[in-house]
Design a protein that fits this description.
The structure is a homodimer. By secondary structure, chain A is α+β, with helices and mostly antiparallel strands. Chain A is built from nine helices and eleven strands. In chain A, the strands form three sheets. Chain A has a four-stranded antiparallel sheet. The first copy, chain A, has a four-stranded antiparallel sheet with strand order 2-7-4-5. The termini of chain A are far apart. The interface between A and B is large, with 42 and 42 residues. Chain B binds a DNA duplex through residues 171-173, 207-209, 217-224, 226-227.
DNA sequence: CTTTCGCGGTGATGACCATCACACCCGCCG
DNA sequence: CGGCGGGTGTGATGGTCATCACCGCGAAAG
């Protein structure tokens, strides 16, 4: 309790610095029911409120490192995080991008084995940390938490399977990149839809290097492929906002 | 109950035909505690015994098909099964090989979405089927089942992640194949260890085509790589039993 | 016994892409 | 202002591997 009193002002300051709304109380969180993990029973939420430690992290924070023994889990409240794994030679690949409402570090916590991935915040983010031991108790005490855990794990599996399909079944790099763009296009930012032409605007905060890691290729190839798409008039790229001009053409490239 | 009386003789006949010991009663199963899912509480096992439908399947049986709505889950008692996914053009990739004691079709059952993979028995196999609705009840009734489910799901995730690492981070096909062989070498068949030379005997029931699907390459390349390993004296292949002669050399190929 | 079929071996060829190398842009900071 | 660093565009080159084509083998089937 005392800790909370000390902590909150710092969090609020940080949140203000990052221009974030901080979610202090899970019971009052308005996003709760739309999120993968957070929609728990009242009792479970109460307990969660008691054992969680809320923090705000700047962009680029490493929440955990691949290979380290599990310390606990993070529930991502705001912001997005990148899960990646690295080979001995430093080549690395992105496993998936986690959205708000997801639990991170779950495989490690449940099986009590080292973290499978390195987790890095991609934006200023708020997350609730729960220590390994408290999480295990929490899990055993409330059956509905177990259900949510199972759902988060199936979500992880599905992401992994789709990554495997992308890596193993696609024929060419352009195909994989087109597929990726089309997935992003499912959540466009239709802020104004200026012009009303069929363009689909999306926001891409990944660098070409990261895109390369996502599809398992090299940075240069990503650059060439995107240049190709641009030259063909399928795509317009202005900084972090892209415009999909010819969605059909991209879809035509994808066979899976 | 009546059904059981009718069913058992057929199962027994099939089991005899396949030269299998059939495990009729989970409570008496001697393998139980060494298995991922089966080591449940007494009460849960009793319930499981009541709702399961035991069957024996020949090699090559398709337990479920990718994309179909979930009907239920299978608990694999004996035999191994291959989980694979296929692209539109018929190219397919093996996600993993399931061992006895694993639950199959779990992601689909938990999230009530279509099966992620096609599951095919690789050997004559015994499995317990539980229908979707009964499984959900079972899960809600016994908390320890939820825990086991979570463990199975983390296992699935880990397999998937290691597959992603293999597909995305390995440099060459020989490296991936060497890695695969080394994984198999962790469970050698040391039946006699005739000679006492350092050779590690393993049993490989996959065709070269399947190995190709496992590492995401073509059948011809697998043939060439294995031929190469043989010519270099690293590996002896006699039908389905292989002998790893030079483990060090294979390890040296692997960087991850 | 011959046929068929699934599996494994191998050569030739070319596409695709990783890699190296360098140039460019832009925001930042001393 | 100049230098620096992160992100990006682009050419040249060579290696890896998919693909096609064909062969041989052995087991099962007719």
């Amino acid at each position: 309790m005392i800790k909370k009193v000390v902590v909150v002002p710092r969090e609020l300051l940080m949140a203000m610095a990052y221009n974030l709304h901080i979610i202090e109380n899970c019971l009052k969180c308005t996003f709760r029911e739309h999120r993968l993990f957070c929609d728990l029973s009242h009792d479970a939420l109460g307990k969660l409120q008691a054992i969680k430690a809320t923090s705000v992290y700047p962009k680029g924070t490493l929440l955990c490192l691949e290979g380290q023994p599990p310390r606990g889990i993070y529930i991502l409240c705001t912001g997005r995080a990148k899960l990646s794994t690295t080979s001995a030679e430093g080549k690395s690949i992105i496993l998936r991008i986690a959205d708000p409402g997801e639990v991170l570090g779950l495989t490690a916590a449940v099986s009590n084995t080292p973290y499978e991935a390195t987790i890095e915040t991609m934006e200023p983010s708020q997350a609730n940390f729960i220590s390994q031991s408290e999480f295990v108790h929490f899990l055993q005490e409330f059956p509905d938490v177990g259900m949510k855990v199972a759902q988060q794990l199936t979500h992880n599996c599905k992401c992994a399977y789709s990554e495997i399909r992308s890596l193993g079944l696609s024929n060419s790099v352009p195909e994989k990149i087109a597929k990726l763009i089309l997935v992003w296009a499912e959540h466009p930012l239709d802020l104004h839809r200026q012009g009303g032409n069929g363009d689909i605007p999306i926001r891409v905060t990944l660098t070409q290097e990261e895109i390369a890691q996502f599809v398992g290729t090299s940075r240069e190839t990503v650059s060439r492929v995107l240049g190709d798409f641009r030259r063909k008039g399928w795509l317009k790229i202005k900084g972090a906002t892209w415009n999909i001009v010819n969605k059909k053409a991209l879809e035509h490239l994808v066979t899976t």
